[in-house]
């Protein structure tokens, strides 16, 4: 049962209610522990948001700061050297410093206030977070630019550049024609949904904005429910812990917004030829050799020797890796580094927005990631737009690493004009190749999720029915099954064939047929991985182990299985024998059980604390997950590798523009990052079954933090 509160008439003004003491400055909490923050100025509010974040998520935000600075191994050991090496090579902290220096003065002051608020609360938050004691480390101090670094950490691998490394590997091992087999949304990428249902003038109902972003299921969650209120605005939504404001999902009373990844291609990888003259590194340019910037840093490693890291930057960007086959360096060019902007100048205007035009104007300052944005306001206006910077350059840059010394691959210095469309009727975005984004990228999600959402909206489905829809597009793989001759199979395989042929295609948690389908699909992926036609993909990789999630052949085959199966006949490969062998394997193996048993929750966390490890183990027993990678309920797994769910909806929301108090939201775990806190995972059972919690808007029903601690 969805948890809803009784709707009340909207107030005449959706500015914060006038002055009763219940709205005193400070941290207020609802019954789910969600912080509702009131301050007298925007800078005081930023400081308060930072303090609340430090109290609730001290370990999480310190880990993200260490990751930006390339200092995680210093605190948790050698396993994190690979990330620290990349962070230093990619110059994440330096980029954060540069972007901070270029902020508008008011934004710079606001971000600095947030960082100060974190410092104000970090010692208290860390004292209650068991990971610090378990890891034998202490929190440090945030710099004013640290929030920008945390944002960069969240998104540096969120775009398409690791896909280009994989395409280069496919082209080198199978030939360029085979790269099209894997032209789908990348592992670890997006998977988000957002939609708007329009206003109804006949009843006076305003639009509803709803959706669910899908990312890696990190513990604590990557999004934090929060309300930010001061005399200028009163906005609720989801924040990144460690980042001020509400960049992606918010409800300001008069206007609400939501984003999905536009799947635009805005990062490029360049092949660089380097040579050395003593400590001087020279890089090949179109007209000869030129010096590159070079320095050596040392990653401090807990329980290990320091690891030297050579940091090189060319005219294209930082060198992030080397191709082990060709010996070439690989540099990364991204708008945030080129323009020395992260998009933070959009954040305060976004909070102050009252109309769709205000949101669109605010997002003109957005940089990356490039987002599809749906915006609606109380007047009934609905806008769909794309926000961010997409460089204009040669199209080959979108496919693979390109030669840095060839002038044709230089960025032009211009960025693509991005569309804005007035929307009538229901609309949805699901990382699909739509007319407004098709020219901006190459790797889009398969179209099933978007088509399914639009069909459900046309049928008048409620948001919960959309959020939790488990119908999978099984046309390609069912077609392979249909071409098999069941009479040529053994008895058990023939029975399994009939069972799968009759299955309704829903990945329900209690479905044995869904589990049987998943088991056969996984066996098919493994069989293709072993097939002589694809076996060359298993040649040793040319890139750093950090990129293994993007360059693992079995994982890539499993993730793009429909496209691989559909495309292999064009390369002269008959998939039928592999599909038949997979059918026999499952039919004669252990019973598949139910999909919920196979599709176990697998949240990602640093395993440094026994209490958190035990909490994660308990979570797996508490919930049975439905959905699958290309369902609207996109709880992802990788066929052939594991049916465990490691990526899924990291938040759900329904923003009601008639009455904000009728809105609702949920996160996978809870408001707190501390395993002994009652709000550590209290939303998990609701999240697993599709229930939402109410958005509390009445300050009188909240508990002020100081009063709570005195009781």
UniProtKB/TrEMBL annotation:
Region listing for Disordered, in residue ranges: 1-21
Superkingdom classification of source: Bacteria
Record-annotated active site: 192
Names of the cofactor(s): Ca(2+)
Record Gene3D superfamilies: 1.10.1400.10, 2.30.120.10, Glutamine Phosphoribosylpyrophosphate, subunit 1, domain 1 (3.60.20.10), Penicillin Amidohydrolase, domain 1 (1.10.439.10)
GO BP terms: antibiotic biosynthetic process
Keywords, in A-Z order: Calcium, Hydrolase, Metal-binding, Zymogen
Keyword Hydrolase: yes
A Pfam family of this chain: Penicil_amidase
MF terms (GO), sorted A to Z: hydrolase activity, acting on carbon-nitrogen (but not peptide) bonds, in linear amides; metal ion binding
Gene source species: Micromonospora carbonacea
Record carries keyword Methyltransferase: no
Binding site for Ca(2+): 265, 268
Cofactor descriptive note: Binds 1 Ca(2+) ion per dimer.
Protein name, UniProt field: Penicillin acylase family protein
Family affiliation: Belongs to the peptidase S45 family.
């Amino acid at each position: 049962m969805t948890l809803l509160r009784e709707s009340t008439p909207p107030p005449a003004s959706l500015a914060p209610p006038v002055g009763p003491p219940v709205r005193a400055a400070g941290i207020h909490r609802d019954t789910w522990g969600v912080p509702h923050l009131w301050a007298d100025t925007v800078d005081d509010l930023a400081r308060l948001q930072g303090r609340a974040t430090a109290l609730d998520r001290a370990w999480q935000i310190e880990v993200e700061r260490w990751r930006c600075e390339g200092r995680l191994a210093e605190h948790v050991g050698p396993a994190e050297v690979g990330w620290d090496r990349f962070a230093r090579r990619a110059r994440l902290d330096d980029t954060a410093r540069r972007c901070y220096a270029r902020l508008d003065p008011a934004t710079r002051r606001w971000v600095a206030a947030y960082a100060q608020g974190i410092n104000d609360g970090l010692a208290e938050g860390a004292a209650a977070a068991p990971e610090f004691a378990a890891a034998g480390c202490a929190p440090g101090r945030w710099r004013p630019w640290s929030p920008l670094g945390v944002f960069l950490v969240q998104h540096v691998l969120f775009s398409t550049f690791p896909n280009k490394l994989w395409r280069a590997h496919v082209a080198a091992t199978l030939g360029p024609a085979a790269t099209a087999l894997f032209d789908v949304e990348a592992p670890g990428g997006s998977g988000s949904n957002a939609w708007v249902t329009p206003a109804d003038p006949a009843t006076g109902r305003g639009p509803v904005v709803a959706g669910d972003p899908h990312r890696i299921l990190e513990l604590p969650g990557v999004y934090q429910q929060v309300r930010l209120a001061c005399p200028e605005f009163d906005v609720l939504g989801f924040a990144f812990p460690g980042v001020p404001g509400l960049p992606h999902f918010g409800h300001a009373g008069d206007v609400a917004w939501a984003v999905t990844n536009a799947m635009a291609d805005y990062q490029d990888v360049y092949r660089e030829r380097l040579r050395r003259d003593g400590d001087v590194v020279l890089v090949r340019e179109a007209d000869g050799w030129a010096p590159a910037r070079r320095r050596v840093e040392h990653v401090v490693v807990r329980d290990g020797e320091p690891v030297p890291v050579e940091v090189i930057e060319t005219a294209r960007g930082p060198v992030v890796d080397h191709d082990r086959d060709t010996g070439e360096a690989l540099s990364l060019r991204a708008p945030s580094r080129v323009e020395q902007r992260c998009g933070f100048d959009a954040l305060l205007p976004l909070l102050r927005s009252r109309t769709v035009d205000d949101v669109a104007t605010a997002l003109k300052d957005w940089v990356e990631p490039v987002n599809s944005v749906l915006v609606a306001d109380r007047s009934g206006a609905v806008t769909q737009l794309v926000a961010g910077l997409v460089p204009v350059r040669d199209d080959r840059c979108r496919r693979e690493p390109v030669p840095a010394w060839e002038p044709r691959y230089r960025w032009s210095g211009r960025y693509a004009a991005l569309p804005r469309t007035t929307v009538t009727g229901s609309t949805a975005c699901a990382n699909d190749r739509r007319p407004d984004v098709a020219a901006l990228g190459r790797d889009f999600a398969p179209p099933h999720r978007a088509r399914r959402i639009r069909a459900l909206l046309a049928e008048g489905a409620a948001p919960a029915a959309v959020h939790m829809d488990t119908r999978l597009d099984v046309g390609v793989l069912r077609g392979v099954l249909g071409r098999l001759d069941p009479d040529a199979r053994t008895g058990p395989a023939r029975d399994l064939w009939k069972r799968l042929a009759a299955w309704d295609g829903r990945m329900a948690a209690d479905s044995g047929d869904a589990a049987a389908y998943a088991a056969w699909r996984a066996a098919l992926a493994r069989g293709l991985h072993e097939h002589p036609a694809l076996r060359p993909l298993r040649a040793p990789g040319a890139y750093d182990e950090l990129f293994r999630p993007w360059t693992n052949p079995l994982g890539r085959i499993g993730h793009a299985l429909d496209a691989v199966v559909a495309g292999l006949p064009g390369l002269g490969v008959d998939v039928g024998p592999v599909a038949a062998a997979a059918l026999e394997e499952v039919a004669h193996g252990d019973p598949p059980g139910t999909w919920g048993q196979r599709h176990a929750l697998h949240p990602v966390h640093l395993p440094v604390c026994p209490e958190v490890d035990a909490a994660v183990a308990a979570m797996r027993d508490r919930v049975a997950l439905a959905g699958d990678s290309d369902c609207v309920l996109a709880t992802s797994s990788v066929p052939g590798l594991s049916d465990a769910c490691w990526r899924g909806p990291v938040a759900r929301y329904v923003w009601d523009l008639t009455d904000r108090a009728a809105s609702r939201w949920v996160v996978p775990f809870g408001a707190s990052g501390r395993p002994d806190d009652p709000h550590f995972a209290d939303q998990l059972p609701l999240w697993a079954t599709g229930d939402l919690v109410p958005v509390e808007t009445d300050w009188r029903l909240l508990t002020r933090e100081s009063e709570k601690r005195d009781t």
